[in-house]
């Protein structure tokens, strides 16, 4: 059942041949104990009514760069926190496949989100944790869940 839920998530992002490669790199096997092929992934998708990947009508805009390069372009310091997953800034990252380096798409919208001074209604982390009576992790989790409910860049 774990493989099926993984295929469900991957099918929104990748074609069947890429999904087969990901499943094989993770050491997963078909119901008959074989390595996955694009045909087997397609059969599994159709049997479980999982829609196939449809590439976007237009390619995404913006330059795809490494995290280090994105930090330079956006004037951010990566030595404190990664801009991905739990860092001070929540930025959508892209990965060709699990294990591949993370990359960030630099768009005008992303550049507009990074400002030198926080708006006056924003609180520093210490004040937010004290005011809310929760830990830093809880604040990060709340911000992360809010960000993930919105479309990614």
Written description of the protein model:
This protein is mainly α. 42% of the residues lie in helices and 5% in strands. The protein has a two-stranded antiparallel sheet. The longest helix is centred in the last third of the chain and has 13 residues.
Overall 3D shape: elongated
Report how far the terminal alpha carbons are from each other: 30 Å
The tally of helices reads: 7
What profile does the largest beta sheet have? 2 strands, antiparallel
Helices and strands: which structural class? mainly alpha
Mean pLDDT: 80
Question: How would the blueprint of this fold be written?
Answer:
Elements: H1 2-11, H2 16-25, H3 38-47, E1 63-66, H4 67-73, E2 103-106, H5 108-113, H6 125-132, H7 136-148
Antiparallel strand pairs: 1-2
Helix pairs in contact: 2-3
């Amino acid at each position: 059942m774990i493989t099926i839920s993984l295929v469900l998530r991957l099918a929104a992002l990748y074609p069947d041949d890429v999904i087969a490669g990901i499943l094989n790199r993770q050491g997963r096997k078909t119901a008959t104990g074989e390595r996955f092929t694009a045909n087997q992934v397609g059969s599994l998708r159709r049997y479980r009514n999982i829609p196939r990947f449809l590439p976007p009508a237009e390619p995404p805009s913006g330059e795809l760069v490494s995290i280090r390069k994105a930090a330079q372009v956006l004037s951010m310091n990566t030595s404190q926190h990664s801009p991905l997953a739990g860092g001070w800034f929540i930025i959508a990252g892209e990965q060709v496949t699990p294990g591949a380096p993370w990359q960030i798409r630099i768009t005008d919208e992303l550049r507009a989100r990074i400002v030198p001074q926080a708006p006056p209604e924003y609180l520093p982390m210490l004040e937010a944790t004290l005011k809310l009576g929760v830990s830093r992790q809880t604040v990060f989790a709340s911000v992360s869940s809010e960000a993930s409910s919105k479309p990614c860049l």
